[in-house]
Design goal:
Helices cover about 35% and strands about 25% of the residues. With about 425 residues, it is α+β, with helices and mostly antiparallel strands. It has a single domain, classed as D-Amino Acid Oxidase, Chain A, domain 2 (2-Layer Sandwich). Strands 3, 4, 5, 6, 13, 14, 15, 16 and 17 form a 9-stranded mixed sheet that branches. The longest helix has 29 residues. The protein is globular and about 65 Å long. Bound molecules: flavin-adenine dinucleotide. Flavin-adenine dinucleotide binds next to helix 1, strand 9, strand 13, strand 16 and strand 17.
Amino acid sequence: MLGAGVVGTTSAWYLARAGHQVTVVDRQAQAGMETSYANGGQISVSHAEPWANPHVFSRLRRWLGREDAPLLWRWRADPAQLAWGLRFLGECLPGATRRNMAAIVALSLYSRQQLGQLRSELDLHYDQLTRGILHVYTDPQEFAAASEAARLMAGFGVDRQTVDVERCLEIEPALADARHLLVGGDYTAADESGDAHLFTRALASRAGAAGVGFRHGLSVDKLAVAGRRVAGVVASSAAGPELLTADAYVVALGSYSPRLLKPLGMRLPVYPAKGYSATLQLLDGGRAPTVSITDDERKLVFSRLGNRLRIAGTAEFNGYNLELNEVRCQALIQRTRQLFPRLEIDGPPEFWCGLRPATPSNRPLIGATRYDNLWLNTGHGTLGWTMACGSAAALTALIAGRRPDVDFPFLKC
Ligand SMILES: Cc1cc2nc3c(=O)[nH]c(=O)nc-3n(C[C@H](O)[C@H](O)[C@H](O)COP(=O)(O)OP(=O)(O)OC[C@H]3O[C@@H](n4cnc5c(N)ncnc54)[C@H](O)[C@@H]3O)c2cc1C
């Protein structure tokens, strides 16, 4: 297993449970240290609307030229960025959006159910809350469009209920001071939240105890191939290079998956979409929300993680750049202060950014490749935490030659 993010770690667990002997390789010192480290924490089937949709152009026009824009495209002399952008445009057609949404909802529903089973089976604790997700709107037009999306989602089996402002405040009283901003919301009671990093660490520890090997501090440099098979992984650490061999290989390197596969002539449509988060330590609960919230206007999510509040979101297409932009960091805090002016926090915010492995369709790449013993589980974009358990369970079925229990366009060789 190449990669110990939430996707690689869940894959390792499901494969080991199916009887495979698994070794996970990752360049970091422990599991879940890159994009799975400080994300928005939402298990959000209700968030399955892909970025590529017919409404995206009017939104982009509104945000044009703003350094704190929820979605920011920085042009680079990068053919991969251009190719990704062109494919993205194709996915904005209504038919493509509908197809993508159906696939993402199916996998996310399956994944949420798998996560619930795993949590009770292993008694996992990761600051989880099963209080649903409330999506709030401050723009009447966006709220109207949301009712349309809710109807569409209902057809796919998501119980996302349109609610008025009073009901929003009943669901989450901590929003009371923002009443004047809100025009409505929608609530998905079955959605959840929790710390993806804590989950990944907890599962890695259980996997280790069950016999999964973890090789941390080892960078995967390239794949050696012989005909239609991968013959080994060339990896390196401070001790020097080494060749690792196995019967089969799974690539779960998040945004870095395309870099490994490009020399093999495989051009994965995965591009890094940088997002930010701020984690606030609360003073005894600090009048913070306990229901996870999505703020439609700024495309931010707010998740209560124990005695912390995580604010996360925004997307910036700027290559593999991981610098923290102060304007974008402060935009998270300003919006938090607008929605929760009486929030009581202890100490400065912890800012972070990570690279979502985004595909133009928002659909992850799961399944076989043209190499007989090479499999992919990558490209989960905005919903990697939501889709991790389902993707891992489905990959395990595919490797066993079985049809997964979910209807999704898996990769075929
Ligand atoms: C701001 C933000 C908010 C988000 N909010 C949510 C949310 O609320 N809900 C949700 O479902 N999703 C959310 N996401 C998306 C989610 O975090 C990602 O989809 C998910 O973490 C991707 O997991 P991964 O395992 O594929 O990638 P990663 O977590 O990045 O794991 C890849 C692993 O591969 C390793 N690696 C990479 N290259 C190499 C190499 N060459 N050699 C060795 N090791 C290597 C890395 O060290 C890493 O551990 C959010 C993302 C961001 C950025």
